[in-house]
Amino acid sequence: MDLENYRLIHDELKRTGATLVAVSKTKSLGDILALYNAGQHAFGENKVQELLPKHEALPRDIQWHFIGHLQTNKVKLIAPFIAMIQGVDSLKLLQEIDRQAARNNRSIDCLLQVFIASEETKFGLSEEELFELLGGTELKALQNIHICGLMGMATNTEDEEQVRREFRHLHSIFVQIKERYFAGMPYFKEISMGMSSDYRIALQCGATMVRLGSVLFGPRG
Ligand SMILES: *Cc1c(COP(=O)(O)O)cnc(C)c1O
Predict the structure, then answer these.
(1) pLDDT recorded at residue 1
(2) Which pLDDT value is given to residue 122?
(3) Does residue 25 carry a pLDDT above 70?
(4) Residue 194 near residue 203, CB atoms below 8 Å
(5) Who lines ligand 1 at CB under 6 A?
(6) Per-residue pLDDT averaged across 139-147, rounded?
(7) Distance between CA atoms of 74 and 82, rounded to whole angstroms?
(8) Max CA-CA distance within the chain?
(9) Which of 70, 113, 121, 195 to mutate to test the pocket of ligand 1 (most atoms within 8 A of CB)?
(10) Is the dihedral of CA 111, 116, 117, 121 positive or negative?
């Protein structure tokens, strides 16, 4: 594996203060370990059945981020060790994460996934659903989760201005929500946006966390 890109991106991100989550889905243990040995400790996976054996085989101090669509019946499998669940898009899922976190005597960091793209296929809460969720009373009962911020994916398009508009939109939702629901709660601070093709735009729009796969590991087969 070529670590040159990793080093360049690592330095680039250091200047912005944003966290790098290396998206290792479909990548081998050897490739992940190479990046780990170069200093990368946060990795993202989007399938539970792929994450579990990787977690078993790799160093214990890796911070695993779940970045895909998580089914409620699979939460218990990752609850003992997951560092952050990005892409939470329902109250039902939050409640199950809370229940499983409690069973493991821990608290689990979550990001709420907001739908900002113009594509039909992406998961996530609409703005309306997001405000409904945050305004409801059910959330207050959840003592074993921390909602640490928002996550979003822009439309997969060549149109950079559209991507920029979508990232700006997520940033403005974040600012509103922080003011209204998380004032004085310093852990609500993450905006996870930006992938290999658009992370520079995301950083310009205030991303605090980027999720990069192919630009680090090479294209997925
Ligand atoms: C695969 C994936 C990424 C990384 O995609 P790249 O284009 O390879 O950087 C980021 N976020 C999510 C949710 C993904 O599924």
Answers:
(1) 78
(2) 61
(3) yes
(4) yes
(5) 23, 25, 46, 67-68, 195-197, 211-215
(6) 96
(7) 12
(8) 49
(9) 195
(10) positive
Ligand 1 atom 6 nearest Cα: 213
CB burial readout 21-59, b (16+ within 10 A) else e: bbbbbebeeebbebbbeeebebbbbbebeebbebbeebe
Q: Is 152 within 8 Å of 164 (Cβ atoms)?
A: no
- CA 195 / ligand 1 centre spacing (Å): 6
DSSP secondary structure letter of residue 218 = -
- What pLDDT is attached to residue 93? 98
Tens digits of residue pLDDT in 153-165: 999 999 999 999 9
Three-state DSSP class for residue 67: coil
pLDDT exceeds 70 at position 97: yes
* pTM, rounded to two decimals: 0.97
Q: What three-state secondary structure class fits 200?
A: helix
